[in-house]
């Protein structure tokens, strides 16, 4: 029995599929099964997969007769896996050769860590190194404003995620939805090294479903606040969201409400220690200052509040204080 299962959904992936599969088969760690779930592809994907099955016994293909979407396919892959360790991979990305070796080393040496990601690099139409937070406590706070792991970089313990699964309603942010739940029950860690090349091109699902992404992103962030004890029935839930996640062009009134919400969140966390206090407060302070700097408008009343009541005025850089004053006067 293999030590690791690698789950790769694919739909009409003929352009990049071979490069993605080769990057898995050429890993320095070799004791795995590559489970490819073909989502009723109509291009040459089936022929490519058939050739790999004949060539390498580690490749297993599940072919669907109707399109089910990546969230459902990954869930099926998790259910079919019989190994404690599971790695995720997309059919248009490239894993560096030592990815699995280094992730397994982290997981084997740290039983408290249930999910291990890595830094990654965009390539193709866009080139950039993505450095997420590394340590568990910092990652937990990062998740309040963004997904702190690159989904195709993830390796996890099957036992650590319990019954949580990807939710189709959150596509194309289903990864953020799942990991924001799992991070409440196990430690996350990112290897501070780019071990995956993430292909950026016009057909990325996250680019083609921008409106769904925006709606899902907001729902996932609000759900985390419910874990923190914020009452869902409050009409002010958006104020708490604005305290932990940057929103540009808020009105002075909205920013004041966010600042007051931030004070409550800090006080609540001092009692519960749900988040590491220093990291949590630094995160909120950064969000609030940036929100103030990106306000839709300024006026004297708002300026006086910032200076005398907000508690954030001393954290605003001098040049920004001057600009805010000038914009409030004229």
Please provide a brief summary of the model.
The protein has 330 residues and is an alpha/beta fold.
Q: How would you describe this structure in keywords?
A:
nine-stranded mixed sheet; 17% strand; elongated; Spore Coat Polysaccharide Biosynthesis Protein SpsA, Chain A; 330 residues; alpha/beta
Strand residue percentage: 15-25%
Please outline the major beta sheet.
9 strands, mixed
Straight-line distance between termini: 72 Å
Report the CATH C-level class of the largest domain.
Alpha Beta
- The counted number of beta strands is 9
- Number of helices, counting only DSSP H or I runs of 4 residues or more: 13
**Could you report the average pLDDT, rounded to the nearest whole number?**
95
Structural domain count: 2
Order of helices and strands: EHEHEHEEHEEHEHEHHHHHHH
Q: What would you call the structural class?
A: alpha/beta
CATH architecture of the largest domain: Alpha-Beta Complex
* CATH domain fold name of the largest domain: Spore Coat Polysaccharide Biosynthesis Protein SpsA, Chain A
Q: What does it look like?
A:
- The chain is of the alpha/beta class.
- The chain has 2 domains: 4-211, Spore Coat Polysaccharide Biosynthesis Protein SpsA, Chain A (Alpha-Beta Complex); 229-329, no CATH class.
- Helices cover 45% and strands 17% of the residues.
- It is elongated, with a radius of gyration of 22 Å.
- The model has no long low-confidence stretch (mean pLDDT 95).
